[in-house]
């Protein structure tokens, strides 16, 4: 197929070969153009006078008309002819809309670059952007000829990319990839201070006709890294081994299956942000290089991570939205509410926070559902029909294989077994968010190992809703602790269910078990309220706060007052346990009769830390004054008093709704958004 160049005195229009499949002479193609409707041509070339365009080719000097060129030289020839004709613009008409910020087939959020300067365009051409020709761009820069890249499908819209001296905004422009390369590493103890090492290496490769795409050298002069096409790797190693034969301590090896990730444009923090986000997504670099003029950063990564890396860096440096891919364990009261909130708030979050939060999967107690593109309102029906396993190891592998970036695993279950797989999710690049408090209340060794793994992998574990539902308690403690304001005591009503139970019981003449039944029917307690009454829930929360401020402790070290009298503590079914209700009512009536007029009952968690760091943790039914902060709470509110050296005897008080699916789910959602 022959390329067709149409000329006017002000512009050169280059039509791609795909427009004409006829391999006849250019004159025949011109005649075909002439027969087209003038109005249609005016749409295709809106800035050109149609008649001069039709006549342009026949009016050119014969030597120019007769010239031909080899395939692939069309872009360069167009600029050369522009020089001869005095044209100031070369239009390159293609099948795509212009130059994109990334390959749109690999990065769905890639956008058209409206304007590039010549140097940026040349960097992109070298970095593998097929639309651009580095030689043609260099000549265009020298001559001051603009290049306009337009689409034949968007002729009337004006969409496209303009390449000129200005280049529009200064900043990041694009991310591209050069696939199938190999890193040749040359190391030698005898290299340091020796002249000609580089020349020897490049000379050996040049003799083999091997082009070097990227170079990196250590300041110690003991090592040299060269990136070549993968197909040249073994020849490169052989030629270098021959060239350095006899040089003491020389080692030469090739690492194949790599990709060069190129970041084009200027940004003060581009390298820092790119490395940070890649590390967070389990993408590691073999080599980092920066162009002398600062227009390009090159990162060499494993080829299997190419698509993920493009998405990560594009999102971090060029994306309008950062996408968070959320997999949720649990679809019960809190889990189901969380999923609803995510789906309902998606557009609002995208507009206000520039975050694209997508629910990519759900798992319940028997099965799972995974959709890389994101789930919608019909997720319940799809999960019901799914036959996929809910095995955490299989799901972790699925998330890893998906190539998705910014993965977040949310645990809205009460399953202690699931928490043992948290490390597996972190290892494959997931951040963690949990309302399930059992993970943070496991043995201290598990807690410590998980934190070390999170640091090593650059991941985060958010657990604000472990204590106090949606109240900003954990984050406040962390801020105080990190600012070195020593926390001396944390005391409060930790459980919304126990708060409702004793607030109501203390303020009324009702039997204890009547209030307990109301708490159960209202959803404040577990289906078996003994799980709340035994104090273990409050003990876990107290332990989590202690560990948040770096107190080392086990759950066995928490002194717990079980609210069920010892005589009734057994394993019988809850319905059978109800036979003990009369005795339970009498027990708490007696406790209540012992109160003074201005006193009430509160189930309190209390953490005290002495100056040496030794801690005391206890959970007990306490008598407090009605006028005190603890005595004044109502309903299912939680209240926490935080004592520090800075605040002295006047604690910081955090109070609010301490239970409920809506506030807990909203707290989980807030933790997810913080990862953006």
Keywords:
676 residues, alpha/beta, Carbamate kinase, VC0802-like, Rossmann fold, 4 domains, 6-stranded mixed sheet, 6-stranded antiparallel sheet, 25 helices, 24 strands, 37% helix, disordered N terminus
Which helices and strands occur, and which strands form pairs?
Layout: E1 4-7, E2 11-15, H1 26-35, H2 38-44, H3 50-59, H4 62-65, H5 74-85, E3 89-94, E4 115-117, H6 118-126, H7 134-143, E5 146-151, E6 160-164, E7 172-188, H8 197-207, E8 214-217, E9 223-229, H9 233-243, E10 250-265, H10 270-280, E11 285-290, E12 296-302, H11 306-317, E13 322-329, H12 333-353, E14 355-363, E15 368-370, H13 379-385, H14 392-402, E16 407-411, H15 416-419, H16 422-427, E17 430-434, H17 444-457, E18 461-462, H18 473-482, E19 487-493, H19 496-506, H20 512-521, H21 530-533, H22 536-548, E20 559-560, H23 574-577, H24 581-593, E21 599-609, E22 615-625, E23 637-644, E24 652-657, H25 661-674
Helix pairs in contact: 5-7, 6-7, 8-9, 10-11, 12-25, 19-20
> Quick one: how many beta strands?
24
Using only C-alpha atoms, the radius of gyration works out to 35 Å
How many separate structural domains?
Answer: 4
Average pLDDT confidence is 86
Secondary-structure arrangement, i.e. CATH architecture of the largest domain: 2-Layer Sandwich
Apparent shape: elongated
Assembly state (oligomeric): single chain
Specify the number of helices: 25
Q: What percentage of the residues does DSSP assign to strands (E)?
A: 15-25%
Name the CATH homologous superfamily of the largest domain: Dihydrodipicolinate Reductase, domain 2
Distance separating the two termini: 50 Å
The profile of the biggest β sheet is: 6 strands, mixed
Strand order of the largest sheet: 1-2-3-5-6-4
The CATH C-level name of the largest domain is: Alpha Beta
Residue ranges: pLDDT <50 for 5 or more in a row? 1-69
CATH topology of the largest domain: Dihydrodipicolinate Reductase, domain 2
Helix/strand-derived category reads alpha/beta
Give the proportion of residues in helices.
Answer: 25-40%
């Amino acid at each position: 197929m022959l390329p067709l160049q149409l000329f006017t005195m002000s512009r050169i229009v280059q039509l791609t070969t795909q427009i004409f499949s006829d391999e006849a002479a250019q004159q025949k193609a011109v005649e075909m153009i002439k027969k087209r409707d003038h109005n249609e041509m005016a749409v295709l070339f809106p800035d050109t006078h149609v008649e001069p365009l039709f006549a342009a080719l026949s009016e050119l000097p014969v030597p120019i008309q007769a010239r031909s060129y080899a395939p692939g030289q069309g872009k360069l020839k167009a600029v050369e002819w522009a020089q001869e004709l005095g044209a100031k613009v070369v239009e390159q008409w293609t099948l795509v809309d212009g130059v994109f910020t990334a390959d749109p087939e690999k990065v769905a959020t890639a956008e058209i670059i409206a304007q590039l300067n010549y140097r940026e365009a040349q960097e992109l051409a070298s970095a593998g952007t097929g639309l651009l020709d580095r030689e043609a761009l260099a000549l265009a820069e020298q001559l001051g000829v603009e290049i306009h890249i337009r689409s034949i499908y968007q002729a009337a819209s004006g969409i496209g990319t303009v390449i000129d001296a200005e280049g529009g905004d200064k900043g990041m422009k694009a991310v591209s990839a050069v696939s199938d390369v190999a890193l040749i590493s040359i190391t030698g103890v005898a290299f340091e201070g020796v002249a000609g090492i580089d020349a020897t290496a490049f000379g050996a490769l040049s003799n083999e006709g091997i082009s070097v795409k990227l170079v990196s050298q250590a300041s110690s002069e003991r090592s040299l890294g060269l990136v070549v096409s993968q197909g040249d790797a073994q020849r490169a190693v052989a030629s270098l081994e021959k060239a350095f034969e006899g040089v003491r301590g020389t080692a030469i090896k090739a690492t194949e299956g790599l990709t060069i990730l190129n970041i084009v444009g200027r940004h003060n923090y581009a390298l820092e942000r790119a490395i940070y986000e890649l590390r967070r997504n389990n993408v590691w670099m073999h080599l980092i290089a920066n162009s002398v003029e600062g227009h390009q950063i090159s990162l060499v990564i494993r080829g299997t991570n190419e698509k993920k890396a493009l998405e990560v860096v594009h999102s971090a440096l060029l994306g309008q939205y950062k996408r968070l891919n959320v997999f949720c364990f649990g679809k019960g009261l809190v889990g189901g509410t969380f999923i609803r909130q995510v789906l309902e708030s998606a557009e609002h979050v995208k507009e206000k926070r520039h975050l694209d939060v997508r629910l990519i999967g759900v798992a319940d107690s028997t099965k799972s559902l995974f959709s890389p593109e994101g789930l919608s309102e019909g997720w319940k029906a799809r999960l019901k029909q799914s036959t996929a396993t809910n095995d955490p190891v299989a799901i972790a592998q699925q998330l890893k294989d998906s190539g998705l970036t910014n993965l977040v695993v949310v645990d809205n279950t009460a399953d202690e077994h699931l928490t043992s797989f948290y490390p597996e999710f972190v290892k494959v690049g997931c951040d963690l968010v949990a309302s399930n408090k059992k993970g943070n209340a496991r043995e201290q060794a598990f807690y410590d190992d998980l934190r070390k793994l999170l640091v090593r992998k650059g991941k985060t574990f958010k657990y604000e809703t472990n204590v106090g539902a949606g109240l900003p308690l954990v984050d406040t403690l962390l801020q105080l602790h990190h600012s070195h304001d020593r926390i001396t005591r944390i005391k409060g009503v930790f459980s919304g269910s126990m708060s409702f139970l004793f607030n109501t019981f203390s303020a009324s003449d009702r039997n204890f078990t009547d209030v307990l039944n109301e708490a159960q029917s209202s959803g404040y307690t577990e289906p078996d309220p003994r799980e709340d009454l035994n104090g273990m829930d409050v003990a876990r929360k107290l332990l989590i706060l202690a560990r948040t401020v770096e107190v080392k402790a086990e759950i066995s070290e928490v002194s717990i007052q079980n609210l069920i009298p010892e005589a009734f503590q057994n394993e019988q079914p809850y319905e059978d346990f109800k036979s003990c209700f009369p005795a339970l009512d009498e027990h708490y009536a007696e406790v209540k009769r012992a109160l003074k007029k201005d006193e009430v009952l509160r189930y309190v968690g209390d953490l005290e830390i002495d100056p040496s760091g030794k801690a005391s943790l206890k959970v007990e039914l306490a008598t407090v004054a009605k006028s005190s902060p603890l005595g004044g709470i109502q309903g299912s509110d939680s209240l926490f008093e935080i004592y520090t050296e800075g605040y002295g005897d006047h604690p910081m008080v955090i109070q609010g709704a301490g239970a409920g699916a809506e506030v807990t789910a909203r707290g989980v959602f807030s933790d997810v958004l913080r990862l953006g």
